[in-house]
Design a protein that fits this description.
Number of strands: 8
Distance between the termini: 24 Å
Order of helices and strands: EHHHHHEEEEEHHEEH
Radius of gyration: 19 Å
Largest sheet: 5 strands, mixed
Length: about 210
């Protein structure tokens, strides 16, 4: 009886995974990619932020100015309450920074698949918002304790902008640092071709590490 052969896992990354990867240096890059590969092989992974995002989207959609956010920490399992309690103040501050609740609506975004060389990267904003004047933003949320680094921010915004026709046409990409209530946008002096070249090199290295981790 022959042993079953394992199906090779093709290199693949989510936007969060890839931007966390580019934020690392040296041996920590290999350790991180190895962890992603093992997680994919075991189909493990849990998103603790689901109810938080749902509450934030509800406040935007129903123009409630933070009512759902103020209640969400009491609705989750006790183990997640400290996390939610740390996230709510900053998210509420960002929500208020958008202006009058009735002047902002929730906009539907779609996921897209970016190809960086031979590496597929899933582009998945959390939601979109549309202002009364018609302009829109595709929003990706950053939940980590540390603020997003310049590299992670630049990679996130560039990849979202690169596929905005599919994600939310004519919108601007925004990365919101939830804990601090700060919105990051692409700096005016950024040269997209240089960012593209940098990310292509990072993607090639990601693929190579993924293969050696098999």
């Amino acid at each position: 009886m022959t042993a079953p052969t394992s199906i090779p896992l093709t290199p693949y990354a989510t936007l969060l995974g890839f931007t966390r990867y580019v934020d690392r240096t040296g041996p920590t890059k290999a350790n991180f990619v190895g962890g992603l590969r093992r997680q994919r092989a075991s189909r493990s992974g849990f998103n603790p932020h689901g109810q938080f995002v749902k509450a934030l989207k509800a406040d935007i959609a129903f123009h409630t100015g933070g009512t759902h956010l103020s209640q969400v920490a009491d609705l989750v399992k006790p183990r997640w309450r400290p996390l939610y309690q740390h996230l709510v103040p900053g998210a509420t501050a960002w929500l208020h920074s958008l202006g009058e609740p009735t002047g902002v609506d929730l906009a539907q975004t779609r996921d897209a698949l970016a190809m960086l060389g031979d590496l597929p990267v899933k582009i998945n904003p959390h939601f979109g918002i549309r202002y009364a004047d018609g302009h829109a933003e595709a929003v990706r949320l950053h939940f980590d304790e540390a603020p997003p680094s310049q590299e992670a921010t630049l990679a996130t915004l560039h990849l979202m902008a690169r596929h905005m026709d599919a994600v939310l046409p004519h919108a601007e990409p925004v990365l919101v640092d939830v804990r601090r209530g700060v919105a990051h946008r692409t700096p005016a002096d950024v040269k997209p071709e240089q960012v593209e070249q940098w990310l292509a090199g990072e993607a090639a290295a990601f693929r190579a590490i993924w293969s050696t981790a098999a």
